[in-house]
Amino acid sequence: MKLRTILLAILVFGITLLAQYTPPTTNPGPAVERIVGKSVPIAQAAAAVKAGDIDVYIFGMRASLAAPLKGDPALALYTAAAGFNDIILNPAPGKAPCENPFSDREIRFAMQFVIDRDYVANEIFKGFAVPMYIWLSQYDPTYSVVADIISQLGIKYDLDYARSVVERRMPALGATKGADGKWYCQGKPVTIIGLIRVEDERKDIGDAFASALEQLGFTVDRKYVTFDVAIQTIYGTDPAQFQWHFYTEGWGKGALDRWDTSSISQYCASWFGYMPGWGTTGWYNYANATIDQLTEKLYKGAFKSFQEYIETYRKATLLCLSESIRVFVNTNLNVYVASQQLKGVTVDLGAGLRASVFNARNWYVPGKDVVNVGHLWVWTASSAWNPVPQGGFTDVYSVDWFRMMYDPAMWNHPFTGEPMPFRVTYTVETKGPDGAFDVPADAYRWDARQKAWVSAAGAKAKSKVVFNYAKYTSSKWHHGQPIKLADVMFIYAFLWDIANDPAKVARESGVASYVNSTMSLIKGIRVLNDTAIEVYVDYWHFDPNYIAYQAVITPDMPWEVYYAVDQLVYVKQTYAASRSSATKYNVPWLSLILKDHAKAVADVLQGAADQGAFPESWFKIGNKLLLTKDEALARYKAAVDWFNKYGHMVISQGPFYLYAIDTAKQYIELRAYRDPTYPYKPGAFYFGVATPVSVKAINVPTLAVGQSGTVSVSLEVPQGAGKIYYKWGIIDPTTGKFVYISDEASATTTPISITVPADVMSKLTVNKPYKFWLYAYAENVPVVAEATQVFVPKTAAPSPSPTAPPPTSPTTPSPSPTAPSPSPTTPGATATTVTTVAPATGTTEALAAGVVGILAVLAALAFALRRRGGGGEETKTR
């Protein structure tokens, strides 16, 4: 059956309609004339806002600095779970097995028990963080898929358990323990080099981890480093060189993702390029074939139902945890400080105020034509601005500024994580997970060997998407040249080329692996007219917005900039697109904001203009020529003129353009792009602030073994939140495992009444404490609220004799499921105190085998979320 879904730019859910915005101007472009950015130390951020030196600080405040600011009338504080920390372990094997303990999977998994996550969250972060066990927390929508797994794994701070593993495994690896209590390998101390960041709380996390390792008998060489040194050492060297054994990673989120397929790939799979070795040819590269297979299945939409997506995601999660290349520590509840006068703030629940395509365009302070923005850094030596995927824009100090300068084709909704139209409109057609379209002869793909567009006839694809780029093609690039469909098609060809040309793959292997994961799914493109294309993509998803997202390309820079980058990186090979290749080949890492790099780009284009060079084959698709030679020459001239005027080659199409950047002075200035053809005005994409569901109370009555009962859950639900989804279970705290777990259910009103069936209660033991576990989230703000409540089941009352009616008392009411009466002899049985859950603490001695056991009984855990749609299709659109 063919499903046809037309998606328009109406994905503004009810909750966002509450946001109010009064624009200071109705001119095309942003709300203010200028954004001025500067580097401000975190400790000075609040004072800088109060003094009027900056209007907003987009780097998350340190917890110790944020806590005293609560209630300060001069400041506005915005909070979002916009970053997280982990400890990445180097699994490369040493010459002797005992040289690197982290090459042993069991020792790596034992490191999960070395971190006291509650201490980190409550003491180091002063409550501005929550414990984290995988790449997701309850603030990520997809967390609902694995919340019960996280709650039952039993990972907790247990140094004794970690020690027992180390004591068992190190001798097996050939190590001996000296009289000093230290481990030795071939007569030398087993030394672990830890790179510990010093700019934020990661110093405390790294020190705590290092101290624990020392207690386990390892010698730790603590190297305290800043951003640039750490990035170059960790991601720019072969792990087998052992310049590091662990590193305190920190991540800034880019956006919410309703149904994650990329984060699990990024933090677990080798093919994505973020595992030790980073996909660089010739280096040691960590890989787990099963994890790679499962994550590629997720990323490429090779599941056939919503149910299979859930199953695959859960299996990959468990395997990634068992491998423990990363030990996730905490999600930061980042606090962003701003002036009370700043208007137009949208708090992305995944990114906060940074990494945002929503904020800068709508920010303004009444009476001022500038917004002054503070950041920890404007630029660092490890910030590279180039458009090659996985090459440039890999750190927050480049991403945060560039997101203010371009309009993406699609972006994720700031509250739901649902992909939505931004500057394209689209129509999705799919044959479903098992069907396929025949790609027509007038659809084309780029052939990297022939350097030409060739017919894609004979290929098959599960879906096709018609994209209309009219809101681009009716406007201009920042350098004044019209945006054309030729820009879009050139980028498609460029990506196919760097993923498939053998020489280019060899030059930038990590880039090629990442890009190919997407481009291999696109089977052909048909040019419909001057504004629209039809993309055939061999990809299916239960949410058609994700099909569109998989197929779309954003023209973020003009084709001529991509052309020059290709010449410098792949043809002349005088620059590298990625950090790792820059290190490997000892050439500069291309960054278009550095004047000498930008001049190299301009020189390529000036040379092309002087020679009349025109890469016609890149624009000739069938009998259509999307760009003429004269238009190409005009582009070269406009780009060179841009460099001569501004000294950089960052050219884009969004609400601001890059007017100036001074890397030495840590200064950046963006100016409003007021071209009358620009399609958006202030107020576009303003959403305001959302409030997730929170659990007020779980009221567990006196429950009796073998008898059904009703639990009442009180929730705080914001207006416009939509339907409420929830799941509940009962955990045996002594094992950390679920006695029972429900399917996901939904409700439209609160409080929620949950019936605990008699057969479930029959599995419990009288007078033994259990945990009633629950998660809940709202349709329009799918941030998971998770809570537990301890209860103690009692003996069931004896059944009354059929010949003797039960006695009654006029003063003592009998218990009722709808009006529970507490038992005076059971303290806590009816308590309504809610505790944010950490994973249940089971017996750690059995945990290593437990992970394998969980994998074996996944089906028995009822892990599939209940379908919330209807009819024969399993496509979810919310």
TrEMBL record:
Residue ranges constituting the Solute-binding protein family domain according to the UniProt record: 30-263
Gene Ontology terms, MF aspect: peptide transmembrane transporter activity
Positions in coiled-coil regions: none
Alphabetical keyword list: Membrane, Signal, Transmembrane, Transmembrane helix, Transport
Membrane spanning stretches: 846-865
Keyword Signal tagged: yes
Biased composition (Pro residues): 799-825
Segments for region (Disordered): 795-831
GO terms of biological process kind: peptide transport
Similarity section: Belongs to the bacterial solute-binding protein 5 family.
PANTHER family from the UniProt entry: OLIGOPEPTIDE-BINDING PROTEIN APPA, PERIPLASMIC BINDING COMPONENT OF ABC TRANSPORTER
Stated name of the protein: Peptide-binding protein
Species: Pyrobaculum arsenaticum
Lineage: Archaea, Thermoproteota, Thermoprotei, Thermoproteales, Thermoproteaceae
